Amino acid sequence: MPGPLVGYKVLDMSRVLAGPWAGQLLADMGAEVIKIERPIVGDDTRHWGPPYLKDKAGNNTEDAAYYFCANRGKQSVTVDITQPDGQQIIRQLAAQADVLIENYKVGGLKKYGLDYSSLAAINPRLVYCSITGFGQTGPYANRPGYDFLIQGMGGLMSVTGEPTDANGHGGPVRAGVAVTDLFSGMYAANAIQGALLERHSSNLGQHIDIGLLDVQAAVLANQASNYLVGGDVPGRIGNSHPNIVPYQAFATADGHLILAVGNDVQFQRFCEVINQPQLAQDSRYESNRARVENRESLCALINELIKTANTKDWLQRFESSNVPCGPINTIDQVFADPQILARGMLISMADTRGGEIPLVANPINYSRSTIDYTVPPPELGSSTESILGEYLEYSALDIAALRNKSVI
């Protein structure tokens, strides 16, 4: 079966990560995605290297590895939207599109006549998704927003990292990937699909307003609920879990492992493995509530016990007794993991310059529909002439004139 979004056309005017992530997700599900990029420069992430994709001779190409993580399944069209001819190209494409994604600053496209109101007048069925740091309204609406800033402002860094000790060690830490951007892209893609479903009954598109700060507040999840319901402000507790014990990383004789003991039965099995069955009967530890209240003494004891054997030995013992545990893999170990390989999470796509681009697969597995891996991340402007000629019926002379004026 084809992907569930086959037949839908998406105009992706976004750059960097949040918007492109949404566009790639829609492309993976079969939508036709046209990526609009600045002539010569393109998406900022094309230059966020090293590393860069190497050609068949081993030389660096113009495109950084970062770009490839969020732009497969798209056709690249270069358009200078500051010029009237460029604006006209966008209007013509938007007239045919089902979806437009953009992440310009609030009001940034209005001066070009490319805002939602202007394009909805041309295509009332257009679903127009704006992604900004702080949304279209509110006192911060005109501020620039970046993932790192939002992780801080949105509370994530206040619960990520080790507590600061008496010597000043520890402190807030950002997540190792731009999770606020990624979550925003996923919320955007979900919102877009919801609007497309609603359009079946209304026959109208609508404007979707996604703000990174809103998203970060939303994905605080249980930490937000702990505060809103319990009244206590959560803090940084390193790799520990605020509501479950033992649920953290522990040092072994030769490295680290993760224990994720989620209930009392699992804790009983855990105690058997570490040869301390009496702990499961101890009133300080017999229930999760008690273990959370006595976290410090229990984890100090576990720390000493876990140090007595190496990681591999402990993992074998815990796994054989069905105690949730796992290693802390480096990224090379992730992509050598037999489960990752068995699930098809490592793919490669052909590229005329480098031969093959290794990529991370989409984690969605449909029982009937397919995920589309037919279009590799595009070279800058590689589809400009074909889109203008086939979609908009521009002649070769028209296209040449636009090139001469640096519109494309």
What features would you describe in this structure?
This protein has 408 residues and is α/β, with parallel strands linked by helices. The protein has 2 domains: 9-218 and 341-404, 3-Layer(aba) Sandwich (Rossmann fold); 247-333, formyl-coa transferase, domain 3. It is built from 16 helices and 15 strands. It has helices at 18-28, 65-68, 84-96, 116-122, 147-153, 179-202, 212-218, 221-230, 264-273, 288-293, 295-306, 311-320, 331-334, 338-342, 384-390, 396-404; strands at residues 9-13, 32-37, 52-54, 60-64, 74-78, 99-102, 127-132, 161-162, 171-172, 207-211, 247-251, 256-260, 325-327, 346-351, 355-360. The strands form 5 sheets. Strands 5-2-1-6-7-10 form a 6-stranded parallel β-sheet, sandwiched between helices. A 3-stranded antiparallel β-sheet has the order 11-12-13, with helices on one face. Strands 3-4 form a two-stranded antiparallel sheet. A hairpin with a 3-residue loop joins β14 and β15 (355-360). The two termini are 36 Å apart.
Kindly summarize this structure in a few lines:
This protein has helices at residues 18-28, 65-68, 84-96, 116-122, 147-153, 179-202, 212-218, 221-230, 264-273, 288-293, 295-306, 311-320, 331-334, 338-342, 384-390, 396-404, and strands at 9-13, 32-37, 52-54, 60-64, 74-78, 99-102, 127-132, 161-162, 171-172, 207-211, 247-251, 256-260, 325-327, 346-351, 355-360. With 408 residues, the protein is α/β, with parallel strands linked by helices. Strands 5-2-1-6-7-10 form a six-stranded parallel beta sheet, with helices on both faces. Strands 11-12-13 form a three-stranded antiparallel beta sheet, covered by helices on one side.
